[in-house]
Amino acid sequence: MANKDNIYNKPLQQIGGFTFDEQVAQVFPDMIKRSVPGYEKIIQTIAMITERKAVANSNLYDLGCSLGATTLSMRSALKNTQGCQIIAVDSSEAMIKRCSETINAYRSDIPVSVLQEDICNIKIENASVVVLNFTLQFLTPEKRLELLTNIYNGLLPGGVLVLSEKFVFEDELSHQLLIDLHLDFKRNNGYSELEISQKRSSLENVLIADTVEQHYQRLQKAGFEHNNLWYQCFNFGSILSIK
Ligand code: GEK
Questions:
Q1: Between the CA of residue 60 and those of 32, 34, 51, 100, 189, what are the distances in Å?
Q2: Average pLDDT rounded to a whole number, residues 237-242
Q3: Taking the model in full, what pTM does it have?
Q4: Could you tell me the distance, in angstroms and rounded to a whole number, from the CA of residue 147 to the centre of ligand 1?
């Protein structure tokens, strides 16, 4: 069973900016499941997208892989596709260490490279499927367009990007209601008011969310002409972009 996330359940003297360190890596599966509505649905659906869009002898990328849930989902869908490899990248040492252990714990003929690296520094090439599952939101906004442009350039024609993010909304009333529903989701999953408010403070200036419109505009600037939201639950969702 996954370790329970109780990082913020005691009052903290000082709340530092959120980092993906050993403490977070230890509880990550529990944390993300209880905090991100639709996370499991998105992970499952990435397998379906992979099954349809992966082509023989191509690369698949899991950018900001954390413990490798997306990689495992993609790998499960690659059984009948010849010559593919998955490249899983994360800048956190704690995540990458655990990710390698998890990936190697299951037998498979699909090669997976697990790299500790900044996703802004890697070359994307010969790609059929690229996934940014709740990762772009942690890059400083100035770096986002360049990364998406690299991804566009590295994708094969017909290749896809799955971009899952937390969103903000221009319409004030909708924005507030969707945020409140997300907070209810966290309460229903056992987080206390103290945990919710301390986590919110630690994510301030670390997770910078865009509107769906901002994403579409940036994706278009990067070269993507076919962009659609395929999933949304409250203020979280996932966009499928096709080259
Ligand atoms: C999942 N995709 O389970 N370079 C590499 N990694 C980064 C960078 C960067 N510049 N910035 C942040 N990260 C996963 C979940 S979590 C989402 C992704 C969340 C990494 C960071 O270390 C962390 O592991 C991941 O992006 C974001 O499907 O915690 O909300």
A1: 23, 27, 12, 17, 33
A2: 98
A3: 0.96
A4: 14
